[in-house]
Design goal:
Strand order of the largest sheet: 8-9-10-14-13-12-11
Order of helices and strands: HHEHEEHEEEEEEEHEEEEHEEEEEH
Low-confidence stretches: 1-27, 135-164, 266-273
Number of strands: 19
Largest sheet: 7 strands, antiparallel
CATH topology of the largest domain: TBP-like
Distance between the termini: 40 Å
Mean pLDDT: 77
CATH architecture of the largest domain: 2-Layer Sandwich
Oligomer: single chain
Number of domains: 3
CATH class of the largest domain: Alpha Beta
Helix content: 10-25%
Strand content: 25-35%
Amino acid sequence: MRMMSVMILTLLITLFISDTASADLDVDEFGWVVVCEVMDSEADAERLAEELHSLFGQYTGYLWIPDWASLSGYRGWLVYLGPFETSDYAAQVACFILWKYPDTYAIQVSGKDGRNTVPPTPVDFSDFTGLAPPLSSFQLRGEMPSDWEIDRVSQEVQWREESRQVTKTLLSLPGWSVEDWIDVYIGSVEYRAIRESLEDPEGDFEKVSQFLRESAENLGVGVFESPGEYILIHKLPDWGRQGDLDFWVALTGETLEYGYRVRLTYNEMPYEWPFIPEEAHVSAIPVLIHSYDEALDLLIETLSEDSIYRSSFPEGLSFGQEDIGNIPEDVYRDYYDIAIREVHRPGGPGDPNTAPIVDRFRIYDRGEIIWFKPAMGMFLLYEEILNR
């Protein structure tokens, strides 16, 4: 999986590439390409193509725009990524270079008149980054610590207290600084990647934010933002794996930080994160909620403003920090799970020995609220409860 992460751009481009060799331009239908830059000088175009080659492999090149009827006719050199057989493939790959070329798009290159373009179009959450999260099989890879003892009959692994350790692996991926923290004691992972843009951070931020808002709506993932400061899209936890995926873009001083993080625990086994170092937890998104009490205050205030319950809310209800899932109490979390229950008093309606669940919510320390719907057994965007 790590190797796939390291090579993800090259592999995807290899899968999407057409059978037409990018050096052979003597055809009517060259194919779809991803536009990187238009240069006035062939020497500059060649220089940029060589730079892109170091990032993306052999599937880069440049061409003289007037040679192709489907292009604008501008007397310049188009530096591209491709070619690709279909517009869908090209539009998906275009997402991977938005951080470097925020005005990129896919265009058809041919000898026929007619300009056909497609904007960057993500098909999956990982298209925002070109990265793929670790799979649950990751804990079966690699060598075990030397001080672990294995019963050769039962294959049961016995570990000692001093085996509690964290591995931090730095991976190489074009444009990203990738950090992979794995708790080898119990088998959890927090996988994070950061990259920066240094050219026009404010302008790029506005372009990228609009792109993320539109794409998030199409993919059905959540958006959480502070306009002009940061925008984060959030793939809600998968109930089977308890995993979250975040992708954010934030203005940090004179730079633009792109960040990606996947946090996974698997199934019902007690995987935990207490030994993952603090530096693996931080991001450019500021922490607004520092305690359960602050999380509860935000939840009650939000539910009250939106009139989710009766006018006497929160009377007749109790609130408690009740973890959704089978995860130990002492693990690292950046959220608070809060359950709302009915209070049945003696002599009143309902069994005083019971306190039925009304709703469950997860409040992240960044201030985002999501709703857990028991009937579906999954997390939903907060907005869904407004339509209940």
